[in-house]
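Subject: mismatched residue count in predicted assembly?

I count 845 residues in my input, but I want to confirm that the predicted structure covers every chain. Input:
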Amino acid sequence: MLVNEIINARDLPVMEFDGIIVGGGGAGMRASLQLAESGLNTAVISKVFPTRSHTVSAQGGITCAIQSDDPDDDWRWHMFDTVKGSDYIGDQEAIEYMCSEGPKAVFELEHMGLPFSRTEEGRIYQRPFGGQSKDYGKGGQATRTCAAADRTGHSLLHTLYQANLKAGTNFLNEWFAVDLVLNTDNAVVGVIAFKIETGEIYYIKSKATVLATGGAGRIYSSTTNALINSGDGIGMALRAGMPVQDIEMWQFHPTGIHGAGTLVTEGCRGEGGYLLNKDGERFMERYAPNTKDLASRDVVARSMALEILEGRGCGPNADHIFLRLDHLGPEVVHKRLPGITELSKTFAGVDPAVQPIPVVPTCHYMMGGIPTNINGQVISVDNGKDKIVDGLYAAGEVACVSVHGGNRLGGNSLLDLVVFGRAAGLYIEESMKQGVEMKNASYDDIDKALTRLNKLNASTEGEQVAVLKNKMQQNMQNNFGVFRRGDLMEKGIEELAQTRGEVDSMFLKDKSATFNTARIEALEMQNLFEVAEATAITANERKESRGAHARDDHPERDDDNWLKHSIYYSETKEVSKRDVNYRPKTVQAFQPMVRSY
Amino acid sequence: MSAAAIPVEQIKTITMSIYRFDPSLDKKPYMQDLVIAIPTDKDIMVLDALHLAKEQEPSLSYRRSCREGVCGSDGMNINGKNGLACVTPLSEVLKRGKITLRPMPGLPVVRDLIVDMKQFFDQLEKVKPYLITKSDNPDIERIQTPEDREELDGLYECILCGCCSTSCPSFWWNPDKFLGPAALLQSWRFIADTRDEATEERLDDLEDAFSLYRCHGIMNCVSVCPKGLNPTEAISNIRNKLLTREKN
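Triage response: the counts match. Full output below for your records.
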C-alpha cells in the first residue's frame, strides 16, 4: 500500500509494538532507551535520521545542580529559580521532580559517554546562565549549566543515539507519522505512518504511544528553529481532540543572529559577554540592575526590543543589537564558544573574538504544549477535571508538564527532555510489567486517521503550501511577537480564520510516492497551522502580561484572574483555565512574588 | 524566503543545474536547468537558493533540517565538491552565474539530491560507536581531566553528513568492506576516550585487510569536511596504535 493512493483501512498493513515513540530527538530517544533497555519491543518513528533532530542545535548546556562548580549548590535553589522564571505558572510538583531527579539523569548521560567539558578537578564543567541564583535569589549568580563546549545539544543527541544503538532500539528512520489512531473508548492505539523513501504506509499499532515531536517555531518567519520544527505532535493531538496548554507562551531568545535567525547561546553572556546599543551603552544595567545581561530571557528580549523601538538599535537600519565578546580574549571565545565562532563567521561575517555579533530577539521555544502529568501521561480536561488519556504520552518541547510556565530558563529544555523522556519511559516500563493489553481499533477509527492524507491525495486545485506558509508566518511575526496588542491580535485571528479553509483544502501537485518532500511539507503546514491558530486565539484570551506574553493593552500580571494555565481545544476554539500545581511533595510551595532581576 | 518578497530592482537571475531522478517517472537521471531570481543586496546560502528553486519546481527533492551546518542533512555535491548546502555561500560557488548540484557520489540515488545512506550507517555501526565500560559507574560522573577530554576535540563534532566517505575513492570501491573515514573517525573517538574500556576489542575488529587499511591517504575526506575535522589523522592514529600495541 503506497501513500499516494486513496487509502482504505481494510487494505492497510499493520505493524505492532509494545511502545512507539514519535520523534527521534532528545526526549524521544531518552524514552526509547528506557523501553529498549527494559526489553520491550520499541520503535522510534522519526521523520529525519535521529541525529538531524533539533536537539542537535542546543548549544549552551543543561542546567542542573550537580554540585561541580559549587559543592553547596542545591536543587531547591534551581527549583526556586525555575518557578520564578516561569512567572509562577509552572507546576511545582513537576519542577520539583525535574530539579531533584536532574542530577541522576545528567550523570547517566555522562556514563553513556557524553563528552562534557571538564573542570580542573575532572568534573563536569558548569557555566552561569540567565535567571540562576544561589540561596533562593539571595546569594547572587549561580553557575549551574553543565556544558560540552557550546555543542551540548549535539553531544547529548549523538550520545543518546549511540546508547540506543547499543540497546538495540528499532529505528524507523525517515518515517512520517500522519495522525493518531483513536478508538471509540478514546484510547490512543497507535499511529498512521509511512516510510518516506518508498511511500509504504502502515497502521502502527501499540500499547503506548509517546509524542516527542518537539517544537513548532516555524509558525514565525524569524526563528532559531530547524526547518523541521512544524509542531507535528501538536497537530496530531489537537485533531484527535486533545487540548493544548499555555500555547500562547512563546520564548523569544534574545540573541538570534540578525537576518539569519540562527541561535547564539546565552552561554556567551554566561561567559562574560554583554549587549550594547548603538551608543555603546550596556543598556541591560538599566532594565535589570542586579543580574544585567543574565536576567531571564523574556526580560532581556523585551529590553532589546524596546531599545530598537526607541531608536537605539545598531546598524544602518537601527534594527539590531550588538553582542560583545572580544574582551573575553580569543582563548575563551575559541575554547568555550567554538560553535558560535563558526556560526558568526558563516551567518554574520564576523569573528566574535574581534567584532561584536549583530543579534535580535528571535522565536526560539514553545513553553506550552500537550498537558501531561510527571509520568508523561497526556491529560485532557473534562468539565474542569483532569482526565488521563489512555495510551498516550508526551515528553519534551511538545509536552507541557509544565516546568517552564510563562518563560523557560536557559539550559532547562535539555534537562526537561532527558528527565521527562526518562520518566515517561520508566512509567511505561512499570505499567507494562503490571500488564497492559493491546487495544483494538475499528476500520472506522483507522479511516478517520487517514482523512487528511486522502484529502491531500485527492486534491486537484487549491493554494500552494509555500504561499500559505509565508502568509501565516508573516501574520504571526507581526501580530503575536515580543509585544502583543488586542486589536492587532484580533486582526491576526481574522486573517488566520480566512486562511483556515485554504489550509484544509490545499493543493498537492506532486503526487509521487518516492521521497516526496512536497507531501511532507503539506502535512507539516497543516500541523503548523494548528499551532498558529491555537497560539493566536489563546494569546488574545489571556488578558494580562506574564512571562513571555507581554501585552501593551494589559501591561500588568493579573494573579486574581490568570494565575492559571490556559487550555485550548481546536474543535470549539475555546479557551478555559486550569489550576497551576502548587503542591510540591518535599518542600513548601513558592508563592508568587513581584518578579525582578 | 519567498521569491515574491524580493523587490524587482534587487533581483538577478542565476542558473541552477540540478541532478533530477524520480524512479517512478524517469528511466534515467538527467540534469535540469532552473533559472531562479536571487536578491542582489545580500549573499544567500546554496540551501536558500534550493528553496527558491523548489518554489518553482515543487517536485525537487533534497534533505534539510537545521539550516546552520550542525545536523548534517544537506550534504551534496556542489560544483564537483561535497559540502553542506546550508553553510555554503552562493557567492563562493557561483561560476558565470551558474551552479551545478548533484547527489553525493558513491551511494545509490533515491531521488534527485537524496542518496540512500544505508551503507554509510551500516559501516558506522560496525565500529560500535558508543562508550563501552566494564567497571561500575560511580554515583556521580566519571572523572576525566581537561587534558584527557581535549583528546576528543576534533572527533566528537562529527555530524554524520557523509561528505567525507562519499568523496573517498576507497569507499566508492569497497563500500561494504572499507569502513570509510566517518566510521573510522568515530572509532578513534572512542579509542581516544579515556573512559572507554574496550580499546583492545576495537583494535581487533579493525585488524583485517579492508576495514582500515584500504585508506590510501588520499585525504579527500579532510578537504571536504564541513566541520574542519581530520579523519585521515584519526586513521593514522589507529594504525599507529595497531602497530605499537603489545600482543598478549
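Chain A touches chain B through 62 residues (CB under 8 Å). Marking this ticket as 'not a bug'.
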